[in-house]
Amino acid sequence: MTRRRAAFVPALLAFVLVASACSSGSSQSPAAPGAASGSPGASGSGAASGAAASLAATGDLNVMGFGCTKGDDIATNRINEFKSKFSGVNLKCTEGDLNDQVFLTAVRSGNPPDLIYMDRSKIGTFAAQQAIQSMDDCVSKAAIDMSNFRDAAVKGVTFNGKVYGIPEFFNVVVVVINNKVAQEAGVTPDSIDTSNWDGLKDANTKMLKKSGTKITRLGFDPKMPEFLPLWAKINGVDILSADGKTSNLDDPKVIEAATFGRDMIQAHGKISDFFAARDALSSDFFGAGNPIAKDVLGAFPIEQFFLNVMAGSSPNVDITVKAPKGKDGSEVTYATGLTWAIPEGAKNKDAACAMAATMTAKDTWIAASKARADQRKKDNKPYTGTYTGNKAADDEIFNNLVDLSAMPKFAAAVKATIAVSDKAFSIPPTAASVDFEKAWRDAWTKIAGGTDPAQALQEADKTAQEALDRGAG
To answer: What angle in degrees, to the nearest 10, is found between the helix axes of 453-472 and 433-448?
Structure first.
């Protein structure tokens, strides 16, 4: 499931990427009848559906890591679309999130699945281990136009110049501000600006609340360690080089970003007390008791799925949602998501390619999203959109299917999210992605325990670079 182990509501962290997709779509999402679902003459990535139909897709198709029967409506409707196009395919799914070790063992034993659904962050590692194969042939056969996908998503599945996955879902970070808390503290939403760290420190101090030593309200939660890559980017540096070969964890700007996050947390008191309060105050994160609705949080960066959480469970919250900004004033956001990939040794590559193409095609997404929008309307519930990673599909969904005119705060929030999506970055694929992430997360654990940020990150950089060098070799 989520591939980011954050120190923020363990249940949330185990669910974040899937939920972020679910929020607007679902990490396990499928297509519904009703829209022009993959007609052969469709343009853009929708053409992939028609082209995929020309593949010799028959026989057993073993899929691992996707809820073919247990997914949400976006997932199951798209599955139905695939089945209707390829009735000669016998779909067999290992339900649940991808278990890396089970998958790798299957590949090494010569009995891999035909298709997997995985976190994009592991593309480089799996490719370097020869656990997955290039999708270039599939892209050609199915006429998948990769330019229809958002740039950060394509970069996230491209390793050593080859495409190793077809992107699905696009999770980006936005800043959610509780206007009620801000106003009470004498803070304006305009002053909560990630490009102004001194201003954020001031707003944080004003918005947080304590009763003695007990934290009763968080001010501005920087979401460390999971958003260290974003704060480093805001400060003008990437934690990993564009070619995925050089660690920048010891860069002074990365150290400054980590120090800033630590200081924002320590303004509340002990770091351990902050994390304990964060968990306690967010015990109903996905419900009506979420921290914004309960006014126990002033502001924080969070994946856009949280907009869907609030729209459904606490639609009357008074919020301002903004794109993060770099210190140079330009908008920027951090993108993550999932992807379809074909393992080495897959026995039914054509069927696997057909499914990957169909599940990510423009018309498939639109059909599934239309079905959800129609059902939400019948249920008198808001539909906040499906962030697919396919820009052509997103344009149709957000321009024609999403109607939040009765919820202007959320309408503005969705607009801000879509606007910043084209300015997103992702961590480049690397053969040592798991070890690299572990290095900077371990560094943060040391920082939270009292180690100087410079020392912790310099040590982490050495460990990370050794892992990157081993992977390159």
So the answer is: 170
Q: What is the pLDDT of residues 90-136, one digit of tens each?
A: 999 998 899 999 999 999 999 999 999 999 999 999 999 999 999 99
Q: How far is CA 414 from CA 256, 321, 419, in A?
A: 31, 8, 9
Residue that has been written with the tokens 């976190």 in this structure: 119
Measured CA to CA in angstroms, residue 146 lies from 138, 142, 395, 401 at distances of 11, 11, 16, 24
Domains of the chain (ranges; CATH) run 10-170+337-408 (3.40.190.10), 172-334+426-472 (3.40.190.10)
Q: In whole angstroms, give the CA distance from residue 307 to residue 157.
A: 26
- Terminal CA-CA length for the chain: 30
Q: What is the pLDDT of residues 348-359, one digit of tens each?
A: 999 999 999 999
The verdict on pTM exceeding 0.85 is yes
Q: What is the spatial distance between Cα 196 and Cα 387, in angstroms, rounded to a whole number?
A: 29
Sequence-distant (6+) residues with CB within 8 A of 220 are: 192, 200, 203, 204, 207, 264, 298, 299, 300
The residue count of the chain comes to 473
Mapped to the 3 state alphabet, what secondary structure does 417-434 carry?
HHHHHCCEECCCCCCCHH
